[in-house]
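Recall the central idea of this unit: under ordinary conditions, the amino acid sequence of a chain determines the structure it adopts. In this exercise we apply that idea directly, starting from the sequence alone.
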Amino acid sequence: MRVVILQPSYLPWLGYFDQLHKSDIFVVYDDVQYDKHGWRNRNRIKTATGPKWLTVPVLIHGMGRPTNREVRIKPGDPWRRKHLQALKTCYGKARAFPEVYPPVEAWLAREWESLCELNVSGLQLFADLLGLKRDIRLCSTLGIHGEQTDRLVRICQALGADRYLTGDAAASYLDAQAFAAAGIQVEYQQYRHPTYTQLYGEFVSHLSIVDLLMNHGSRSLEILVDTAPRRPEDAHP
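Accordingly, the structure predicted from this sequence is:
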């Protein structure tokens, strides 16, 4: 049984959903420190002039080291209207816009206060649009504590996993021996990004899942999924 543990992200990229697809249980790492320079509150879409960031404004000043669960969205900012307008402008002529935009609009139209709740709800929405049904759980509900690799091992043990799938960047810091000692095999994703038909000329990779869905709709899962995770010995040094 394979477990994936990833932090919640806004409009995640394709590789995020490839890991979801490969998981038996997908754990949202909602109670670890918020990464203010990462992908928790932003991602990119494609415009006629190139990639464009869509960023959710958050309140973190003076909070020290908040967890993902503690981060609040800045009230009164018209970010939802701006993001929806950007999606309509950039993808209004995309093939699957009529089927993908309405549920995305309904999701973003809600009065969100918690960034984590926005992202977890978005994860479920995009999984549904992909036709991807998986067991998704919040780490904060598991009652498992510890630091770094030790906590990851404990989460896998508690869920009965014999395989842990992670991104290839983890090969530089993950204590794979700790997993081995617990009888858990570490697998590295090393995602091979597909090329697919987009609007606006030359292909741009590593965009939000929204780009793929708007252009390909129900075929998106078939396009994004990589064939298999790699063995530990295949991971990049």
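The first strand starts at residue 2 and ends at 6.
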